[in-house]
């Protein structure tokens, strides 16, 4: 491969990766606003097919390194303290790289 051919191939690869990133962002935007469960499912399947997964960590322990707290839900159950009650805004990961952390509501033990 000549230097000129290599440069052309690298330019095409860079352009394709930039376009891929733009399309992923557009799909994330569309999923955030979709009113139809069928549309969300189809977008999710399409993203999954290219290695992008939706992050919905409901029921797991809150970890500020991986989740963004959007609110709290009081609980009287000590076992639920610090557990994610629900996902407010989906997060997304492109293979192992987080594109957007999920925004979650976390159970917090009610103060007595």
From TrEMBL:
Residues 58-78 are annotated as: Disordered. Coiled coil: none annotated. GO terms for biological process: protein folding. GO terms for molecular function: adenyl-nucleotide exchange factor activity; protein homodimerization activity; protein-folding chaperone binding. Residues 58-69 have a biased composition (Basic and acidic residues). Keywords: Chaperone. InterPro entries: GrpE (IPR000740), GrpE_head (IPR009012). Gene3D superfamilies: Head domain of nucleotide exchange factor GrpE. SUPFAM superfamilies: Head domain of nucleotide exchange factor GrpE (SSF51064). The keyword Thylakoid does not apply. It holds the Pfam family GrpE. This is Nucleotide exchange factor GrpE. The lineage of its organism: Bacteria, Bacillati, Actinomycetota, Actinomycetes, Pseudonocardiales. The gene is grpE.
């Amino acid at each position: 491969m000549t230097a000129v051919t290599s440069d052309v191939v690298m330019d095409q690869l860079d352009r394709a990766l930039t376009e891929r990133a733009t399309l992923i962002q557009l799909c994330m935007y569309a999923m955030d606003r979709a009113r139809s469960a069928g549309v969300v499912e189809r977008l999710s399947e399409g993203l999954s097919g290219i290695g992008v997964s939706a992050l919905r960590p409901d029921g797991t322990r809150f970890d500020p390194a991986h989740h963004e707290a959007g609110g709290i839900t009081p609980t009287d159950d000590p076992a639920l303290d610090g557990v994610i009650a629900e996902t407010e805004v989906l997060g997304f990961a492109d293979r192992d790289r987080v594109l957007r952390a999920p925004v979650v509501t976390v159970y917090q033990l009610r103060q007595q």
